[in-house]
């Protein structure tokens, strides 16, 4: 008898832990669902479905540790609130899924959906009375539950009829999918949706007698049910993620896996270990409070470390070999790239070493083509500022052909160290020049010559690498919006192929704001205009063809036209009505300085920048509307 009692206690403890685990995973996935980017009918209804499951299992997990009758009744009604809303959530989700496959409701599904909402709200209202559920039954094993009423039978009929209609929609959606990938993901979704539906139904209403006679079977079935719900929730979220994020398959798998493992799985395991230790302590009448704290810390640290340690194994399972190799190359860039700060620190080190080697007071580095004038670096002290003569020193170094002499005498007591990068298959490229003062060439022995040559070649290599990386950053900046377009099309057309015909490159107004600002900053010439994503607009292409202009000039005219549309009627004034147009005209078309514009418009600089953001957003909206008009006209 004691062995059976102990086994029952163990099974109940495991069931309680899994119930809390389902509450944790459902809440975590609910938060994950809230972050979905494409807030359409599918993702919104799925988020509501996850909220119902959070309510059901969240209340359930508190019920397992509550003994007070009043508290139990309150928690059981919260539990029932989630159950009452769950069928409607399932039907709305199935309706959105079927609509996503290109089969929108013609009226009947919308009518049924609205009817489900009304019925669910009616049952929810009955929770405030004793009509839907009766009093709390606490003295009958294996677990407390609310007394059955006649309305329970009506709700059960509503529950199973609505679930049947939901699965009918799921099957229709599955049949409408064409590709093997879409069908596979839809199948994952249909099968995994069974778990939360069956795991949430209040079986004790009809099986309390059986559960009281066979408590071991009841707790074993509860364990299997909770474990199934835990797994199927993850599978459902994985399938729905393809609607919610404009990401590729590998990114969705990786991010969801990391979220599940580092968040809910870690929390569930930690909760399980501490709960078992606590209950064993009570059983053996031992104080285990210190052990619980140690176990909690140990489980979190060890499990988090294990996730990182075995990352290669689960990535091998999730991704193909080619994907893994490409991902490793991309990830290695983070460690290998030289940032501006890295180059500056390395430059400071080289210049300081050269000053010590040549025994001079200071050294000034000039980088060719500016590579950003900010890369000019001064180490030590110089008798004067040579910045205005940088072109002279760079020209002197460029005409220097004797590569054997590392240091070259200049003018006015100055000497220069040219920085040449010599590739294996090309002529040396001048990267910059180092200027030093009062250096005595007679002190330049062969050993110093060799050391100085090593230092200048290493600095030239660093500058060359940074130059290559800057070109890479420009390419990435141009590529990012295009990749975003492809990802958005991929996300929206996975189950509705008609979306793939959307030709508009405009996907995010914030991105367009950035493109417009970049183009206005370089309105009269510069890479932010000549390489701007706005050049891909049909609006610009059409103006290029019709007016036989270059794309850059066409874009410049589009921006002018958008700014002119912000101009109020009548003669120019400096009132609030004119402030957006005046700001754009003075800053970008007339080239005024910020201080002068602020004074002219009677604004503080902070207020001017706020108004500038509003003005740029207004230009963006005008361009978006013009682009949509042309797209609709051509289609």
UniProtKB/TrEMBL annotation:
Ranges for domain Histidine kinase N-terminal 7TM region: 22-224
InterPro entries: HisKA_7TM (IPR031621)
Keywords carried by this UniProt record: Membrane, Transmembrane, Transmembrane helix
Keyword Cytoplasm: no
TM region(s), chain numbering: 13-34, 46-65, 71-91, 111-138, 150-170, 186-206, 218-247, 259-277, 289-314
Protein name: Histidine kinase N-terminal 7TM region domain-containing protein
